[in-house]
Structure formats: structure tokens, C-alpha cells
Design a protein that fits this description.
The protein is built from five helices and six strands, in the order βααββαββααβ. The chain has 170 residues and is α+β, with helices and mostly antiparallel strands. The strands form two sheets. Strands 1-4-3-2 form a four-stranded mixed beta sheet. The chain has a two-stranded antiparallel sheet with strand order 5-6. α1 packs antiparallel against α2 and α4 crosses α5. The chain is globular and about 60 Å long. The two termini are 22 Å apart.
């Protein structure tokens, strides 16, 4: 458990910046503080719902999964019991590799604990082979990283700067 940091400008576009700008403009015209707070709460619930839906599309699940979003701090809080460490880490990545999310507050537990993975933030010019060489000493070990990040990765060549990847233990 803890806080995992992400690049706010990188990731899946589940809720657009135009929606956020429209919500901010509407909030600026709100006649009361109560209405402003309600609009903010609605936007946070919609974002949390979009992230939870994205987790579902990746065919990941956890008992009692609860996703909350705080737009003011760009933080997702996720709780629940994942069946294994791999699923937990993939859920955390689904929550954080979303445009507009700067950090994930990990409140999840695991039914079957195992060694935790390391993480790597992709930078310009990175390839899975280069990352495998760095972590495992063997560029040909890239399929291990690719498999560890499925289904979020659909192809080994489709990684992007700012993306956070799981690097499972050797």
C-alpha cells in the first residue's frame, strides 16, 4: 500500500480535457458554493466510474473494488482485495496510466501475496528490449515485460513516454 506517482499528461484518455474545461467553466458560473461542490463531486464520480470501467475492459477484477477520484489533487484512491499480486499491480496501472491522473493511493490488499514488481517509467527512445536489458541483463527477455503488462499493452512496440510499466521479478 502507498502512493504511486504517474505523469498526469500521459495515458489513456478516459475523460477529456474539454470535459474538465467545461466543468471548470460551469463551476465558475455556479451561483453558490453548494452547487460548485455538487458539480465537482459529479465530475469526480464520473471520472472514477470511467476508470473503473476501464479496469473492467481489461478483464481485471478484485473483490470489493472501489475507485474514487479527486480532481483537485488528480489522485485516484483504489481499494479492494485482488486475487494475486499481478492483478493488483495491473489494476494500479489501469488507474494511473490515465491522462489527468498524477498519483494513485493504493489501499488494495492481495488474497495470495507474492513478491512485488518494480516499475519503470517509459522515456523517449525506450523499447521493451532496452528495458529488459536494463532490468534483466538480457534484451531477449522483453516478452516477460510485455506479458506482465497485458492486456494494457496490445503490442510490444506500442509503449509511450510517461507510461508506467510493471517489471516482474527475474
Amino acid at each position: 500500500m502507498g502512493i504511486v506517482s504517474f505523469f498526469k499528461e500521459a495515458g489513456e484518455k478516459l475523460f477529456g480535457h474539454k470535459d474538465a474545461e467545461a466543468a471548470a467553466a460551469a463551476a465558475a458560473q455556479a451561483p453558490s458554493q453548494a452547487e460548485l461542490q455538487e458539480r465537482s463531486a459529479q465530475a469526480n464520480r464520473a471520472a472514477a466510474s470511467a476508470i473503473e470501467g476501464y479496469i473492467g475492459t481489461q478483464k481485471l477484477s478484485a473483490d470489493g473494488l472501489n475507485v474514487e477520484f479527486d480532481g483537485a489533487s488528480s489522485t485516484v484512491t483504489v481499494a479492494g482485495v485482488a486475487p494475486d499480486q499481478s492483478t493488483k499491480e495491473k489494476i494500479l496501472l489501469c488507474c494511473g496510466n490515465v491522462t489527468g491522473v498524477a498519483q494513485v493511493n493504493d489501499m488494495m490488499t492481495v488474497a495470495q501475496p507474492a513478491d512485488e514488481s518494480q516499475y519503470h517509467t517509459v522515456v523517449r527512445g525506450d523499447t521493451l528490449s532496452a528495458i529488459a536489458k536494463k532490468f534483466y541483463g538480457n534484451a531477449n527477455a522483453y516478452p516477460k515485460i510485455f506479458e506482465a503488462n497485458k492486456p494494457m499493452l496490445s503490442h510490444p512496440d506500442k509503449i509511450y513516454p510517461g507510461q508506467l510499466l510493471r517489471i516482474p521479478p527475474a
